[in-house]
Amino acid sequence: MTTRRAPMVVLGTIVGLVAIGSFRASPAALSLTTTPAPAAVTATSRTASTPTNHSTTTPSAAAKSSTTAAPSAARSQTGSTVNYNYGTLAVSVTVQGKTITNISVPTLNDGGNPYSQSLDSMSIPILTKEAMAAQSANIQSVSGASYTSAGFIQSLQSALTSLGM
């Protein structure tokens, strides 16, 4: 009786191995391309107000003033706006000398998606705390918020690069 089952078991094993071997899983597409900051903020965006400097200076005067500034003066920069799959975000950094003193997210557009809002409200404070402790963009992603983490880190690195850090 076992001799009748043996060919069926072998055949079933071969079919199963061929099926597993031919299975091709495609990775999820993640697009973390930067987009230009929107000229107008839509109703679904949350933005913090930032003061704008409307003084008129010539390019040469601006270059002179930036080179004569004290190295310990506080400087701020907003990173590029990043599409993180659930929307867009931009990270703003303030530095004093070579020390990061403040990190915020002045632009966050998640389209009003409740799932994304809950992830953002949970992960952004953790990412901010980690970046402040590390004093760089070299931080770990938040588990369960991989896209938000990747977008935050990319925008943070963009701001730090613009500040020469």
**H-E order:** HEEHEEEEHH
Examine the secondary-structure arrangement and name the CATH architecture of the domain at 73-165. Alpha-Beta Complex
Q: How many β-strand stretches?
A: 6
General form: elongated
Report on the structure:
The protein is of the alpha+beta class and 165 residues long. The chain has a domain at 73-165: Sufe protein. Chain: A. It is 42% helix and 20% strand. Strands 1, 2, 3, 4, 5 and 6 form a six-stranded antiparallel β-sheet that branches. α3 packs across α4 (146-162).
Structure summary:
It contains 4 helices and 6 strands, in the order αββαββββαα.
Any chance you could write out the topology, listing elements then pairs?
Blueprint: H1 2-22, E1 34-35, E2 45-47, H2 59-68, E3 74-78, E4 81-83, E5 88-96, E6 99-109, H3 114-134, H4 146-162
Antiparallel strand pairs: 1-4, 2-6, 3-5, 4-5, 5-6
Helix pairs in contact: 3-4
Offer a few descriptive terms:
alpha+beta, Sufe protein. Chain: A, 6-stranded antiparallel beta sheet, 165 residues
